[in-house]
Predict the structure.
Amino acid sequence: MEYNESSFSEKIDSLMKEVLEDSKVKAEELIRQAEEKSKKNIEDAKNVLEMEVKKVFETMNKKIKRERDLKTFETEIQIRNEIILAKEEILTAIMNLIQQKLIEFTKSSKYKVYLQKAFQEMLNYLSPGQYILYFHKQDFKKFPQNKLLELNEDSTLQFEISRSEHIEHHGILLKSKDERFSIEDTLEVRFNQKKEQIRSKIAKMLFKD
């Protein structure tokens, strides 16, 4: 067979062209598939990202709502506590003012009448015997010994006023000489006995809720 270089070159060119065409098609197909796959991957990744972002925002929204609700609750508690404290301060101030008024009352002429009535009330609970009366150091001068004779009509009852020992409260502390029996009637004791009732009454008057 005769060798023909021209025909061989043409054959090579033809084969190259065929291979290139085929390769181009395959390359284009591969590129198309890659692009489609890439697009799908991108779309999938986008969907996944959107879902993750959505979950993050849902979690954040729930967290924000919880924090907001908690903050609201804490604020309500704080406001409620501040109101309670304010009410307590008002009540305490009023109670202190009442106690102050009681002390001022001991400096009035009506206080002497109170002491006399307190003593007369005690007489109803006494058995025959000897008794000692104790007063606040500022009070015993307001209840002289001769007032005992005037107010006590029962000869079986004998009284003396202690001038060396005094009580802290304003009123009368009565003791039998053998110290087996005692009665205390003071402004402070009376006030403390009714303290909670007074607070409750004031609270109802001031705070309707």
Remarks:
- The CA atoms of residues 17 and 23 lie 9 Å apart.
